[in-house]
Amino acid sequence: MPPDNGGYMVAGYVVTAVILVGYAVVLWRRSRSLM
Amino acid sequence: MTQPAAAAPIVRRGLLLCAVALLGLAGVYVLAIAYTPVEARQGLAQKIFYLHVPAAWSALLSFSLVGISSALFLWLHDPRLDRFAASSAEVGVAFSAVMLTTGPIWAKPIWGTWWTWDARLTLTLFLFFLFIGYLALRAALADPAERARFSAVVGILGMLLVPFIHLSVYLFRTLHPQPIVLKPSAPSLPPAMLQTLLASFAVFTLLYIGLVTVRYGIALLEEAREAADAA
């Protein structure tokens, strides 16, 4: 029976999405302010 | 002088690539959660692997390309190489942030600790700080020629850490597992896990290209604004 640790998976997936989508949004806003 | 009109299509192309890559990332989430089997000993936490390993790949790719383009810049003095190095360094820091947060989140349930000061983890943290320093140096220097020359030296020094990080699991006693894909023998993974990992590698590489393209366009726009302010 695998250990019950799905919360760590969810945390890892959420953190990844926040960093990558957040950085893409920051770049988009920076480019808009310069154009 | 750089024209803003020339930068706009580059930014748009980069944003399009980012959008496609982020949709691909959502696809990787679905594949990892629904398609790959649950590892018997590690449980669901093992699925962080499908994000942690490609993020590490993208970070090390970013910093390697910073070093290569910096060396070429010192040789050729082409400002495009300096612009690319600055863009790749910033994107590399973002991927490093993913690697350095997903790593401890995965480590806690498996190793029983968030962090351990072994060779692979410590060198990776040093690399992250080194490129934070690289970006701080660029922000601190006003003269573009000086900024490009000094930061190129730091970029080359940062790249020298990359092979040590990859080989650290062979060179030192470490808790970190050895490579399972980028190694001399064939990858040692069940087909569903390997396919999902390769899909994730492709998505992260596409995202790297998209983010660097947008960041390169922003550098062009910033140069155009600096030139306009100086005129």
The CATH level-2 architecture of chain B is identified as Up-down Bundle
Mean pLDDT of chain B: 92
CATH class of chain B, please? Mainly Alpha
How far do the termini of chain A sit from each other? 56 Å
Helix fraction of chain A, binned, reads over 70%
Instruction: Return the domain count of chain B.
Output: 1
- Spatial separation of the terminal alpha carbons of chain B: 11 Å
* Rg for CA atoms of chain A: 16 Å
What multimeric state do the chains show? heterodimer
Return the structural class of chain B.
Answer: mainly alpha
The number of helices of chain B is: 6
Give the structural class of chain A: mainly alpha
Strand content of chain A: under 5%
Low-confidence stretches of chain B: none
Biggest interface, residues from each chain:
A-B, 24 and 43 residues
Write a compact overview of the structure shown.
Helix content of chain A is 83%, strand content 0%.
Please explain how this structure is put together.
Helices cover 83% and strands 0% of the residues of chain A. The longest helix of chain A is centred in the middle third of the chain and has 29 residues, at 6-34. Chain A has one helix at 6-34. Chain A has 35 residues and is mainly alpha-helical. Chain B has 231 residues and is mostly helical. Chain B has one domain (4-230): Four Helix Bundle (Hemerythrin (Met), subunit A). In chain B, 79% of the residues lie in helices and 0% in strands. In chain B, helix 2 packs antiparallel against helix 3, helix 2 (49-76) packs across helix 5 and helix 2 crosses helix 6. In chain B, 41% of the residues are buried. The mean pLDDT of chain B is 92. Chains A and B meet through helix 1 of A and helix 1, helix 2, helix 3 and helix 6 of B.
List the helices and strands and how they pair.
The complex is a heterodimer of chains A (35) and B (231).
Chain A: H1 6-34
Chain B: H1 4-35, H2 49-76, H3 79-111, H4 119-140, H5 144-171, H6 191-230
